[in-house]
Automatic annotation (TrEMBL):
One of its GO terms (cellular component) is membrane. Belongs to the TMEM175 family. It comes from the Bacteria. It is a multi-pass membrane protein. It comes from Solihabitans fulvus. Keywords: Ion channel, Ion transport, Membrane, Potassium, Potassium channel, Potassium transport, Transmembrane, Transmembrane helix, Transport. It catalyses: K(+)(in) = K(+)(out). This is DUF1211 domain-containing protein. The keyword Membrane applies. GO terms for molecular function: potassium channel activity; proton channel activity.
Amino acid sequence: MTKTAARQPMSVGRLEAFSDGVFAIAITLLILEIRLPGEPESDQALLQELVRLWPSYLSYAVSVLLIGMVWMNHHRMFHHIRQVDGFLLLLNILLLASVTFLPFPTHVLAEAVHVQRGEHTAAVFYGMVLVIGGVFYNALWCYASIGHRLLGDTITPAEAAALRIRWGMGPVVYLVAAAIGLWSAVASLVFYVLLLLFYFLDLRPRRADVQ
C-alpha cells in the first residue's frame, strides 16, 4: 500500500452505513425496556397490567419516532456532505452516542409516570438528553457547512445558512419541552409529538425548477 493510499479519508457512504446500523440498534433496544412488572395470576390481572403500561407504550412511540426523525434528517444532511474528516467523524460519534443513550431516559420516564413518583425529574432528564443530541446534530452541520467546508454543489452557502437556523431551533424547543416537564410529564411528551410532526418535514430550502 502506498503512502498516499494509506491516507485516503473515510468515504461518506461508509460513515452513513455505520450510522444507519447504530440508529437501527437504538430503535431495537427501546422495545427491551417494556416489561411486565411481575407475573399476573389471571387473564384479568394480565389485562390490567398491560393497560397500566400505557406510559411505556407512549414513551416508546415517542422515542421511536424521535430516533426515526433524527435518522431521516441525518440522511438529508449527508445528501449535501461530500467529504469526511476526523473532526466530523468525532461529531457524528457524539450524535450517535446521544441516540443510543435514549432507551435509558425513555425507561426512566415510563417508570416514573407509571408509579407516579419523580415524573417531573424524569421528564426534564429525558428532555435534556434530547437537547444534548440536538446540540451535537447542529454542531455536525455547522462544522460541515460553515465556509462550505465539506459540502458539495447540491446546496448553496445561503441555503446551508438557512438550514443552520432552521435545524438550530431544535435544541431550543427541546429545552422548552423539558421545562414543560417540570409541570407535567405527559404534557411534555405531547409537546414532543407536536415537535415531531414539524421536524419530520423536509426543512431544506426548495430550489425552483429550471425551465
